[in-house]
Design a protein that fits this description.
With about 280 residues, the chain is of the alpha+beta class. The protein folds into 2 domains: about 1-95 and about 245-275, Glutaredoxin (3-Layer(aba) Sandwich); about 95-245, Up-down Bundle (Glutathione S-transferase Yfyf (Class Pi), Chain A, domain 2). About 50% of the residues lie in helices and about 5% in strands. The protein is built from 10 helices and 4 strands. The protein has helices spanning about 35-45, 80-90, 100-125, 130-135, 140-165, 170-190, 200-215, 220-230, 235-245, 250-255, and strands spanning about 20-25, 50-55, 70, 75-80. Strands 2-1-3-4 form a 4-stranded mixed sheet, covered by helices on one side. The longest helix has 28 residues, at about 100-125. The radius of gyration is 19 Å and the shape is globular. Belongs to the FAX family. One of its GO terms (molecular function) is glutathione transferase activity.
Length: about 280
């Protein structure tokens, strides 16, 4: 996947104080990124009107070897949930939820981030439409994409085994994710958003980031069939969120397929060591 790089120091040394630099993947034609975790962070940034600049590349990785990550004031924050938690505190964007709502939100986020994702990603990486999935990675280039289509599934199979879900049959792995989708549908009910308010919260960004990978993709996993036939309230729910957070979805996806390897350079003389956390 190219020259994968991480860094012990800030990648944006002449940063603009308070600005978020998001490291993510390029878009694909149907989605702003193939990473649900990167989509979660960027959706949350957009929803909350936080100034950010995205570096869309297959070459930059966090100190933990992950994407997404952000740099703020010269400091890296990684892991999508940690990113949102820390930025919400920094920019005073905490959701106004009861203790019960916060508990439910945490459990739902854990379910989609640590359970549902393994189920539908199994289909994307190892299922019959895996070649179609990898062809979507236009920004990687044909040669690198061909290599990735051979190496990533092999590595992913090992990760599935290590997680434990990979020890089940294919049908069982997919059934687990389909049950998660049914649970999300039941929780949403006839509400506009998961927590029942008039506006989305962070948990909506988390759920959207995963279900969008299923709903707006040309692939046809069993998870999508459940959304079409049983969990019918989820499609309109996703469309509502998309219209609020990503009104430019189609144009954005088309414009950012190639991404960019170039790091931004801010003309900022105020960025100095005493501003770094």
């Amino acid at each position: 996947m190219g020259n994968l790089t991480s860094s012990s120091g800030p990648r944006i040394p002449n940063y603009k104080p308070g600005k978020v630099y998001l490291f993510t993947f390029p878009s694909v034609r149907c989605c702003p990124t193939i990473s649900p975790f990167a989509l979660k962070v960027e959706s949350w940034l957009r929803l909350n009107g936080i100034e950010y600049e995205a570096i869309r590349s297959y070459s930059h990785w966090s100190k933990k070897g992950q994407v997404p990550f952000v740099e703020v004031d010269g400091r890296e924050i990684n892991e999508s949930s940690f990113i949102i938690k820390e930025l919400a505190a920094k920019f005073n964007k905490l959701d106004d939820l009861t203790a019960e709502q916060q508990a439910v939100s945490s459990m739902v986020e854990a379910m989609v981030d640590n359970h549902l994702v393994w189920s539908y990603s199994h289909y994307r990486m190892l299922g019959p439409e895996a070649p179609v999935f990898f062809e979507m990675w236009e920004g990687m280039g044909a040669v690198k994409r061909a290599i990735a289509s051979r190496t990533i599934p092999r590595n992913y199979r090992s990760r599935l085994e290590g997680h434990g879900i990979g020890r089940n049959t294919v049908e069982e792995i997919h059934a687990m994710g389909c049950d998660d989708i049914r649970a999300l549908s039941g929780l949403l009910g006839d509400k506009q958003f998961l927590m029942g308010g008039e506006a989305p919260t962070a948990v909506d960004c988390a759920v959207f980031s995963h279900l969008a990978q299923i709903w707006y993709s040309p692939l046809k996993p069993p998870h999508k069939a459940v959304m079409e036939t049983e969990a019918k309230n989820l499609g309109p729910y996703l469309d509502r969120l998309k219209s609020i957070i990503w009104p430019d979805w189609d144009e954005f996806c088309a414009a950012n397929v190639q991404g960019s390897e170039k790091l931004p350079t801010e003309d900022n003389k105020e960025a100095s060591s005493d501003q770094q956390e």
